Amino acid sequence: MLVRELLSLDALQPISSVTGEEGLDNAMKDVVLLEYDSLQQPRPKDYYLDDFIISTLFSAKDDPGALYAMVEQLISLGAVGLAYKSVYFKTIPPEVIALAKAHHFPILKFDGLYIEDVILTISDSMRMRQEFSMFEEPLFQLLRGGADTFGIESLCMQMNPNRKKYMCAVYVHSTDLTCDWSITLRNVLQLRSSRHIISSYRFLQFRRGFFILCNDTQPMEPKAVARDMLKLFDSLGVEYSHLCFGIGTVQQRSADFDRVIRDAFDALLYAITQNITVATMDELRMYQCIFPMIRDKTTREQIAAIMARLENYDQESSSGCLVATLDAYSSCHYSIPDTATLLHQHPNTIRYRLKKIAELACGTPEADHGIFLLGEFRRMDALSTSIF
After folding, report:
1. I need a surface site. Which of 50, 52, 73, 301 has the fewest CB within 10 A?
2. pTM score above 0.70
3. Would you say residue 289 lies in a domain?
4. pLDDT score of 259
C-alpha cells in the first residue's frame, strides 16, 4: 500500500500532508505505533524497515529539539513515513520539515481521531489490498486451463468463500492504458469495503482489472447482473468511463468454477474488440467457439504452422504483405474498402492478397470463412496476451 493512499481514505479525514510529498509513493508493509518510546535505546539497522509510523509525538513534547532526532532515526531505521496527531505539536519545526523533505520522508497530520482507529483503518485497508491481489496466479491457472476437478473445487472455496447456490463472475478491465490505475484500485477497494455488498460479492484483482464474483440463492440472469453492476458503481460514485465489463455464465457446481472465470474473461475480450461497455457471454455467438481455440495447444500449433506459410511467402515474394494484410483486414472488420484505404492500396490488390491467404491457409482461394477465423484468432489472441 502506498502512503499517498492514506490521504484518500474517508475514515482518516481530515488528514493532510505536511512535508515530504516526494515520498508519498513509498510502499508500506506494516503500520506501527510509536508513542512512549523515545528511540534512545539502540535499535538494529532496518528495525522499522518499510513501516509506517503513527504517533502523537509524546516522547518529544517537552523537548521540540528531540523531534528532529526522532525523525532522523526513523529515516535511518527504514521507516517509510510518519502520521502524527496534532495534540502536542500543532506545527512541525522548519528544520524537521527540511530534514523530511530532503529524505523524501512523508509526514502526515490528522486530528479528531483516536490513534487506535487510525491504526485499525490503515491495517484493514492493507489487509483488503492484500486479499484483493493474492489470487492473481491461481486466476491465471484457471484461465489457462489444466487444473483437475479437485483443484478447481479447492480454488472455488478459497476465492469464493461466500458461495451460494448460483454464482457468476464479472471481469472488469481498464481500456485506457494511460489512466492512473491506482485511482481505479482505490475506488474498487472503497466499493469492496461497502458493508451492504460484502455478503454478495467478492473482488479479486487480475492484471489491469478485477473479477467480481456474484453469488445468489436464486437463479441469476447475466443481463440483470450487468445492470446491477453499473447501478452499483453509479450508487457509490465509482468512475467507470474507462472500464469494460465482461459478464460470464451462471453456474452451480464448484467444479465449474474455471468456466465461471473463463466466460467472464472471454466476454470482456469481446466487449473490448466491439468497443462496447458491457458484454454477456450470450452475445458472443460464434466467438464462443473461437476463445476455446486460443487456449487449445493443438489449435495454437496448427495456427502457427499456417502463419509460417504466410510469413515464408512474404519473405520469398518481393511484394509479399500477406500477414500485414490479414491483420489490417481483421482490424477493419473485414471490409475490403477500409483495408485498402488503411494500406494505401487498390481494392483489387487487397482482393488478390486475400485469395492468396485463403489458398495458403485453407487450400482454396474462396475460403472467406477461413480468413475470418484466422484473423479473429490472431486478434483475440493478441488482446488476451496483452492482458496477461
Report:
1. 301
2. no
3. no
4. 92
